Amino acid sequence: MAHENEWYYCLKHNTVEPYEGCRAADRLGPYPDRDTAARALEIARERTEEEDRKDREDW
Asked: Which pTM value belongs to this model?
């Protein structure tokens, strides 16, 4: 029950899965719901772009 609201995006299978899925090294998350987990790659890209922007500002 502790992980019932956790969803992950599996990088190996390109699918959304619950806690009982592939090993942690192969996935992103946890996310609060299936829809958010489905956007995992988009979210990761947005976060990377934001950090890259911050890095450029620091130069």
From this structure: 0.85
